[in-house]
Amino acid sequence: MQPEASELIEQQGPLAAAIVVAHNQKSALERCLRALQASAVRERMEVIVVDSGSSDGSGRVDEEFEGITVLRLPRDFGRSRARNIGARTARADLLLFLDPRVELEPRAAGAMVEALTKDEGAAAAVPQFRTPDGRAVRCARKLPDSRTLKKASMGDGALPESDALEAIADWAFLLRRPVLKGMNGFEEKRFSEHWAELEVCWQIRNAGKRIVEAPEAQAVLHPPSGGERDETLLAADRVAGAAGFVAKHEGFFAGLLFRISCALSALFSGRIGLFSAILSGSRVDPT
Question: What pLDDT shows up at residue 4?
Fold first, then answer.
């Protein structure tokens, strides 16, 4: 007698764990979860939602979607800590980190798993993205220098697109657990909401590994929505994370000068609130 599919899944263990961090993004989160529920590998995929202190019902999506785990945090501690909590909860060795804006096509998760597992030199895999109207969007980035990182941190947080897959926009990426374990997780002390993915990408390159794109994995990237976060706080958080990245790889004083340069740019452009927030070291996670 053949075992039931559920028994096979339990025997084999989960293939991957999808970890979605959300803060007041219920509509986007529901769309993201509907796509995951339709995945061709759903029966072998854990789905974990980490709700960062939402007030819009995001933390109750398990009432609508069966077979998912929701971890409810009492407040918004930032994406790095939330992702670490999700990763510690997951059983799978392949961790699929998703922004709620991302809608994966049914074959996408399986294609990413295949692309990653068949390439021993790969540490992470990403899908191909397009907008809802069909325009291709690249997630490939170069590891930025200080000037590029400052421009992104003081602007909208987006690094320039690149043909080089040294770094990524972290909308969706599949990561081998040993990579994260070797870093002791995402660095919460340096990165609260922003730029933790740069450190992951730096460590991947430093280890002689690479990030691969899975052409059979297709994903729709929807526009940002909701969140109810203060834009000044988010900008200060970007600067704090960027300064932490610069300090780690170029030295303490380089990081300090980066922070001062960003603060002065905010002051001279009349962004007094941001100037104060940068000087005070404000982050999404103040702990």
Answer: 38
Structure tokens, 177: 């657990």
Which residues have C-beta within 8 Å of that of residue 155, sequence separation ≥ 6? none
Same domain, 122 and 246: no
Rounded mean pLDDT of 169-178? Answer: 97
| Whole-number Å distance between alpha carbons of 102 and 213 | 16
Question: What whole-number distance in Å separates Cα of residue 248 and Cα of residue 110?
Answer: 35
CA distances from 67 to 26, 61, 62, 83 (A): 18, 11, 8, 19
1 has pLDDT over 90: no
Q: What is the mean pLDDT of residues 118-124?
A: 97
Which residues face 1 on adjacent strands? none
Question: What is the number of domains present in the chain?
Answer: 2
Q: Do residue 20 and residue 122 come from a single domain?
A: yes
